[in-house]
Write a structure and sequence with these properties.
Number of helices: 9
Distance between the termini: 51 Å
Strand content: 5-15%
Largest sheet: 7 strands, mixed
CATH topology: Uracil-DNA Glycosylase, subunit E
Shape: globular
Number of domains: 1
Structural class: alpha/beta
Number of strands: 9
Bound molecules: iron/sulfur cluster
């Protein structure tokens, strides 16, 4: 295991960073500064998520320390490192949303991967799920390139933003219910800031589906009864603030789903292509 004081070069910029990366030290895409306020308890998450713009929200997310188990895990992984990435610094912090700040399409996932986004500092970047997702987004015209290796690779999403429901990498990819609820003010605030423009939400897996329904309900939006059920290609309409949003279900591009053929490239393209079509016609 490495030491906190060890510094290693960023794979793109060559700049030296310790793991985890201190805020405001030059990591590509780091939204925070040394002065960004840090939430250390659930009540502070709720307070710091309220009444801020998107850039400041991203910054506050990226320094949050409100879930002791997740903070310990993400930082332990950042210091221990997977052998294949032992020569790289790890971000080791929460992962804010990535993409357009005025998107028509929002993609909602579960949580960052321990050696993916927790290493690169950008959601879905640097893991197999992201490889599938960004390739598909590129094929349907929602990303400027089909690969995503690190946070300085020039990738831009087109009219699209991606967020994780829980912003820190959890052990076994399983946040507890308390951790999910502690983190919920961040995604609710983000949805609230984006609500004016978003027309389509793509939920990756049942976790993203439930989180989207819960978050919109918390914002006062109406959800059809009976509650819409998740499935690949499932669609539901959410109504609020004088507008509507189409929720699309998509199997998560996890290795478990892609290796077994439960999710194919064509199936992923179908849902993301439908989202791309709906953003202009929906
Ligand atoms: Fe903060 Fe969310 Fe991470 Fe918990 S999971 S520490 S609330 S960013």
């Amino acid at each position: 295991m490495g030491l906190v004081s060890d510094v290693l070069p960023h794979p793109a910029t060559g700049e030296l960073f310790p793991s985890p990366v201190p805020p405001g030290t030059g990591w590509p895409g780091d939204p925070a500064t040394e002065a960004t306020p840090v939430a250390r308890r659930a009540a502070q998450v709720r307070r710091l998520a309220a009444r801020v713009g998107l850039d400041e929200l991203d910054a506050r997310v990226s320094v949050c320390r409100a879930c002791p188990r997740l903070v310990r895990w993400r930082e332990d992984v950042a210091q221990a490192k997977r052998a294949s990435y032992a020569d790289q610094p790890y971000w080791g912090r929460p992962i804010p949303g990535f993409g357009s700040s005025t998107p028509s399409i929002l993609v909602v996932g579960l949580a960052p991967a321990a050696n993916g986004a927790n290493r690169t500092g950008r959601v879905f970047t640097g893991d197999r799920s992201g490889d599938w997702l960004f390739a598909s987004l590129h094929r349907v015209g929602l990303a400027t390139q089909g690969t995503s290796g690190h946070a300085a690779d020039g990738l831009e999403l087109i009219d699209t933003r991606m967020v994780a429901t829980v912003r820190c990498a959890p052990p076994q990819n399983r946040p507890t219910t308390v951790e999910r609820d502690t983190c919920s003010p961040w995604i609710e605030a983000e949805l609230g800031l984006l609500a004016e423009r978003v027309r389509v939400v793509v939920a990756l897996g049942g976790y993203g589906w439930d989180a989207t329904l819960r978050s919109y309900a918390a914002l006062g939006w109406q959800v059809a009864r009976p509650r819409p059920r998740f499935g690949h290609g499932a669609e539901a309409t959410l109504v609020g603030e004088g507008r509507s949003v189409t929720l699309l279900g998509c199997y998560h591009p996890s290795q478990q789903n892609t290796f077994t053929g439960r999710l194919t490239e064509a199936m992923l393209d179908d849902v993301l292509g439908r989202a791309a079509a709906l953003r202009t016609t929906g």
